[in-house]
Amino acid sequence: MNWLLLLEQILNGFQLGLLLFLLAAGLTLVFGIMDMVNLAHGSLYMMGAYFCATFTGWTGSFLLGALLTLPTVFLLGVIVEVIALRTLYARDHLDQVMATFGLILFFNEATRLIWGPIGLVIPLPDFLNQTVEIIPGAPYPAFRLAIILVGFIVAGLLYFIVARTKLGMLIRAGASNREMIGALGVNIRLLFTLVFGLGAALAGLAGLMAGPILSVEIGMGEGILILTLVVIVIGGIGSIKGAFIAAILIGLIDTVGRSFLPEILNLVLPEASASTAAPAISSMMIYLLMALVLAIKPQGLFPPKGVGK
Amino acid sequence: MSISIRHVINVALLVFLGIIPFLTDWIGDSFYTGLVARILILAIAALSLNLLIGYGGMVSFGHAAYIGVGAYVVGIGAFHAFEDGIDWMLNGYAQLVAALLGSAIIALIIGAISLRTRGVYFIMITMAFSQMLYFSAVGVEAYGADDGLSIYSRSDMLGLIDLNDEKSLYYLIFVSLLIVLYLMHRLVNSPFGNVIRGTKSNEARMRAIGFSPYKYRLTAFVIAGTIAGYAGFLMANLSDFVSPDMMHWTRSGDLIIMIVLGGMASLFGPLYGALAFLMLEELLSSIPLTIGGLHVGEYWQLIFGPLLILIVLFARNGIDSFLPQARKGS
Description:
The complex is a heterodimer. By secondary structure, chain A is an all-alpha fold. In chain A, 75% of the residues lie in helices and 3% in strands. In chain A, strands 1-2 form a two-stranded antiparallel sheet. In chain A, helix 3 runs antiparallel to helix 8 and helix 9 (220-235) crosses helix 10 (240-268). In chain B, helix 3 runs antiparallel to helix 10 and helix 5 (92-114) runs antiparallel to helix 10. Helices cover 67% and strands 2% of the residues of chain B. In chain B, a hairpin with a 2-residue loop joins strand 3 and strand 4 (294-295). Chain B starts with a helix and ends in a 16-residue tail after the last helix. By secondary structure, chain B is mainly alpha-helical. The relative contact order of chain B is 0.18. The longest helix of chain B is centred in the last third of the chain and has 27 residues, at 213-239. Chain B is globular and about 60 Å long. Classes of the chains: A mainly alpha, B mainly alpha. The interface between A and B is large, with 46 and 47 residues.
């Protein structure tokens, strides 16, 4: 086994995991507090990438572009919440699935109309567009390292907000018992809108960071949306801690699995069948993990207090 | 059963669907026979999903997976018959049995695990399982991976019916639809159907009067999956092609849209929904309007997406609620 490659893949796993966490954090709060299935979360991720590409083009700087993108996506999230989603909280999950599915179609088509069918490229500044040798002999892209760093910082900030501030207290209370905090005189509407906007901004942040590595294209949010759903279901809907642990777990399993499964399978299978089976099995692995977790703990690994019945 | 206007409309629709091949002969454009056949197959799948969503309250978001399983059985059979000369794999009856059995077993496994969960978790886990099947189809290079498989010869029904004849295939699909409609009618109004409906409206009470919902739900889940597998068998023969895209989660979303469009918990709802869904797609994408050099029809989903939200918000009960009301449960 190649240890340097393993190390590199573990870093990649953290990077994917932290991106997933940024998406999952917003989604799990929306799920947990508002009991709302929002399939359009991936669209906000996509919008983050597209806005960043445009703003980077205008300002000529990726960092400025990113700074402009965050409030824009926050605002977009607030607008979507106020216009389309607010009326859906009281509806059942089926209605929410349908309506947010409609939103996905709308966002994809609107993006095609505005930015055209061809994907965009987000150019990186020089200091991010190089490799760093953290360990001698193993150069690693600086931008991916930056993603890991930003991911950890945001996770820490979120933890601080949720665990230590008044807003966080309300969020946690909302995830445990929505009606009760409403009865105690908290302006739930405003709280919902704020949380949704925050979730949107986090999704946008994930999108703008994924943009330079993957490609900025229509439908880019859908694949990662499914992964995010897997993350929050494994972590327990409404739990930030669960989302964090599950996101890192999924990121590591997916990335490391993909690069090492062929080798592992080679030990038990003839080479030809190992190389055919490996891609299929490695993309199925996280779903198997999810099935396993739900079969044992139907509420996920870390259900918020007061939810697990 | 008294005859209401609603029944007349339903029967008129079925008669109309029954003479479609002759109508298109008359117009001289057989394209529409294929289009309507596709709609009918999707209606069969939507009908089966409605047993879960409309009657049972189980929002399964992975129903397209079973269509895929049924379709891939035909595709793989035709592939081996063509490439390796294994003739029996082209046998339509062998394919049919494999398609039904395969989708039933997969539905049993998925259902057994998924039905332990509720609400959002159930939606997510069914979606995840269907994505798992989707990715395994994408990953299998031998069967075309991403590109799918072209089917060079349709299922051989040993002279009983020739699927290569478009009219025979259409009538096979049409009669299948009638049978599934009848089956659903019987099923929903049977004691079994009452338990399923009862667990939707009040699970605690069903438990209190001595039913264990889990095995009833699982049975319904397997029945629905098997019928969808049959729809896949038909779909593969109609389109001469299978690909992982048939199993993508957005295809499952389409089926749910059909059900909600048509009206849940009504027998004919999914059929109306499937017709409306594909006709809307055809209509919206051919809007002859050009604004600022942009062809509006090309961006039909820009209209369809918000339309979907409006339907959810304001026309909850779908097309079915616009038909004259008949006795409950008809």
